[in-house]
Amino acid sequence: MPYNFTNDTIFKPQTNTSLNTTPYSQTNSIPIYNISGRNPDRNATLYVYINQTLPRADLWVSNTSSKLNAINLTLNRQVIWGNYTNSSNLGLWMWLDLHDVDNVSSIVRRLQTRLNPEGVCVGCL
């Protein structure tokens, strides 16, 4: 799937208990990631997950600018968009919640990584 990602997702929380911190450059009208479908023959399902736990921190992602229906990212794959088609365009918004983190800079360093979306086609086999 082609994509137009930023190189890094950078969060700058103000305190060790900051909630709803958004990535640098994300706004209510501009998601941190934009994904455009380019799968002409099959629909796909897009999953999200993290590859390591974040001690005393929660990372959230949504396909809308509202955190109300956001997914709390875990080590397990979770569907962020089902039935993704060739004409689909998807924005992803993110939030970081810190819960009395000892070393904020260590959490921020871990989050300055690239997002690797994983698409799985529906009925491919």
Summarize the structure.
This protein is mainly β and 125 residues long. The chain has one helix at residues 104-111, and strands spanning 3-4, 33-36, 44-48, 57-62, 71-72, 78-84, 89-98, 118-121.
Description:
By secondary structure, the chain is mainly β. The chain has one domain. 6% of the residues lie in helices and 32% in strands. The chain contains 1 helix and 8 strands. The strands form 2 sheets. A 5-stranded antiparallel beta sheet has the order 1-2-7-4-5, with no helix packed on it. The longest helix has 8 residues, at 104-111. The chain is elongated. The protein starts with a strand and ends with a strand. 20% of the residues are buried.
